[in-house]
Specification:
This protein is α+β, with helices and mostly antiparallel strands and 262 residues long. The protein folds into two domains: 168 residues, Trna Endonuclease, Chain: A, domain 1 (3-Layer(aba) Sandwich); 81 residues. It contains six helices and 17 strands. Strands 1, 2, 3, 6, 7, 8, 9 and 10 form an eight-stranded mixed beta sheet that branches. The protein has a seven-stranded mixed β-barrel with strand order 11-12-15-14-13-17-16. Strand 13 and strand 14 form a beta hairpin. The chain is elongated and about 70 Å long.
Length: 262
């Protein structure tokens, strides 16, 4: 087994087979601010459903500014890839996350999160999926990548004084620097844009706001649907191609800008 010398003390790798999943999960929770800076870590044990079936994730990561979010699955390296890990990932990636999901996460945060922005975030794009495993499993990587899931390896090392070190490898999720979201013309409401990630934009409600596009300043208002957030152009005709992806960026509390996605 590998070992690490740190500050004149040897740390020995803890055998992956010696940990129970709940023990590994607690280690991740206790050190979540170190492993996932810029995110709120919360337990997420609510059963979710997709066309593939039902599954229960382990945790959720919420960007501090509600720009994106991750559904997390804690796994041990001795778990079956094809019979356990992959079915879980496929369900979680395509599950329906509803108002019940928002209320569950909000309750687990002990009301420290903003409910309205959390709701906007969930109305946007599906969450990303992150698998955290306790030992390198190279054969998992291409299979999970194919399903657009990331994998982080966190190995535990412990000294004779019961102090711990961690070796973190694999994918590292990062905080998005910009306050923006991709968007496009709604297929049925031609004067509206569907906002892919509305949580981070904090779009004003019940009042007009301004959007700059091609050196013109235009007026818009927000529309809330059950599972989406739209913004509606208040002019006579919206001269934007319908099959184009745009980026809506926040410049101030009530000023935004639309640009073409590069």
């Amino acid at each position: 087994m590998a070992r690490i010398l740190y500050d004149n003390e040897w740390y020995h790798e803890v055998s992956p087979d010696s940990l129970f999943e709940y023990e590994f999960e607690e280690i991740i929770r206790a050190n979540s601010s170190t492993f996932f800076p810029g995110f709120h870590y919360l337990p997420f044990k609510q059963t979710v459903e997709s066309e593939e079936g039902t599954a229960k994730p382990d945790f959720v990561l919420i960007d501090n500014l509600y720009r994106n979010w991750w559904i997390g699955e804690v796994e041990l390296s001795n778990h079956s890839l094809n019979y356990h890990v992959v079915p879980q990932i496929e369900i979680l990636a395509n599950a329906y996350y509803s108002k019940a999901s928002v209320e569950y996460i909000y309750e687990k945060s002990q009301t420290s999160l903003c409910y309205n922005r959390l709701q906007d975030m969930v109305k946007g794009l599906q969450p990303n999926v992150l698998v955290v495993v306790n030992s390198p499993v190279p054969e998992w990587i291409p299979v999970l990548k194919q399903r657009k899931a990331l994998i982080t390896i966190i190995q535990l090392f412990r000294s004779l004084k019961n102090k711990c070190l961690f070796r973190v490898n694999g994918d590292q999720i990062t905080v998005v620097n910009s306050v923006s979201s991709e968007c496009k013309i709604h297929p049925f409401f031609r004067t509206c844009l569907s906002i892919f990630s509305p949580g981070g934009l904090d779009i004003p409600e019940n009042k007009k706001f301004f959007v700059k596009y091609a050196d013109m300043v235009t007026e818009w208002k927000r529309i809330n649907l059950k599972d989406a957030v739209l913004i509606k152009y208040l002019g006579n005709e919206l001269h934007l191609p319908k099959d184009t992806i745009y980026v809506l960026s926040k410049k101030s509390n009530e000023e935004f800008e639309i640009t073409l996605k590069e």
